[in-house]
TrEMBL record:
InterPro entries tied to this protein: ArsR-like_HTH, AsnC-type_HTH_dom, Dimeric_a/b-barrel, Tscrpt_reg_AsnC-like, Tscrpt_reg_AsnC/Lrp_C, WH-like_DNA-bd_sf, WH_DNA-bd_sf
Keywords: DNA-binding, Transcription, Transcription regulation
GO biological process assignments: regulation of DNA-templated transcription; response to amino acid
Domain HTH asnC-type: 9-70
Taxonomy, superkingdom: Bacteria
Keyword Transcription in annotation: yes
Protein name: Transcriptional regulator, AsnC family
Organism field: Granulicella sibirica
Any one cellular-component term (Gene Ontology): cytosol
GO molecular function: sequence-specific DNA binding
A Pfam family it matches: AsnC_trans_reg
């Protein structure tokens, strides 16, 4: 379920979110030092962010190329009506799928895949074919593979880190 930013998120929460997205393995004591809180206070803040599902989880980011999957692509998928649910179920079973999004526009889904080679790509796309028409774009480089997600500041005078600018 997607909701708007929780009104209880403040500048310290923004700083905590930024730090955890940079290094989710940071010790609570160090996190507390960086955001200006005691260790117990920062633990309580992180717990609340998790309980409110603002922090959805923690995971290792793995370079697909370094584990034998150097070819990545976006597969744009177009599906007619009753096959949407079947495709959504199928795509969850494919280990080559890194992410899948239901989108607006000419396509129904955008699917990012990582594969060994072009032959492997063909097999993955062929596995989708009973349900769809596809259009594939190979990924050449990823200048921004993932960016930090922070709630929008509530005051336009606030900068990205969530603190109000002091002076001019």
């Amino acid at each position: 379920m997607t909701t708007s930013a929780d009104s209880s998120i403040d500048g310290i929460d923004r700083d905590i979110l930024a730090e955890l997205q940079t290094n989710a393995r940071i010790a609570f004591a160090e996190l507390g030092r960086r955001v200006g809180l005691s260790t117990p206070a920062v633990i309580e803040r992180v717990k609340r962010l998790e309980e409110n599902q603002i922090i959805l989880g923690y995971r290792a980011m793995v370079d697909p190329a370094k584990v034998g999957l150097p070819v990545r692509a976006f597969v744009k998928v177009t599906i007619a009506g009753d096959k949407l649910t079947k495709f959504a179920a199928l795509i969850k079973t494919l280990p080559e799928v890194l992410e899948c999004h239901r989108v607006t526009g000419a396509e129904s889904f955008m699917v990012q895949v990582a594969v060994r080679d072009v032959g492997h790509m063909e097999t993955v796309i062929d596995g989708m074919m009973p349900y769809v028409a596809t259009n594939t774009s190979m990924i050449l480089a990823s200048p921004v593979p993932w960016n930090t997600v922070l709630p929008a500041p509530r005051d336009t005078k606030q900068k990205r880190g969530g603190r109000i600018s002091q002076g001019g």
